Amino acid sequence: MKKRYVVILLLFFGILLLIGYNRYFYNFKSLENATLFLGPIESPDGKYKASSYYLDYGGAAGGVIYIVEVEQSQTGEKKTVYSSNHKDDFSLSWKPSDILSINNETPKYNEYRNIDLNVNTDIYEESGAACRSLLLKGKFENCYKAEDIKVGFIFKLLGF
What we know:
The chain is an alpha+beta fold. The chain has helices at 2-24, 153-157; strands spanning 35-42, 48-57, 63-72, 78-85, 89-94, 99-106, 111-112, 115-118, 122-125, 142-144.
C-alpha cells in the first residue's frame, strides 16, 4: 500500500516538473537542422543582417516554423527575434536601421503574424512561450505573441 502512494507521489511531482520546465524554460528552436529561406538582408545602415529559416516538424502531418535571426555585422553576434508557424506569404524588410518588418500571413483565413520589431529590444514568438521564459527574460524588453490563438485550459497548463 505504501509503495502505491510513493509511486503516485513521484508520478505527480514528475508531471509538475515537466509542466514547469515546458512553461518557464522555453528557448527558441535551434537552427541546426533549419534551411535558409530568405537573406541575409542588410539593414539600411549596414549595422545588421537578417536571415529567415524554415524548420520542418511533425513528419508528414506536421508543418513548418519560420525563424528569423539577426546578426550584428561588426561583432557577428546572432540572436533569434521571431518564431512562428508558416503562413502563405512571408517576407522581410528593413524600415529604419534597427526596425525589421516581418510579414507572415494568410489573408484568406484571416491569419496574420505580421510585426515590426526593434531588433535591439523586441522578440516575437507565436504562442507566447518566449514571453514567460525565465531563460529569455533578460534578453528583451518587449515580447509579442499572436492574439488570435485559442488554446484549451489543459494545453495552457502544460505551457502551450
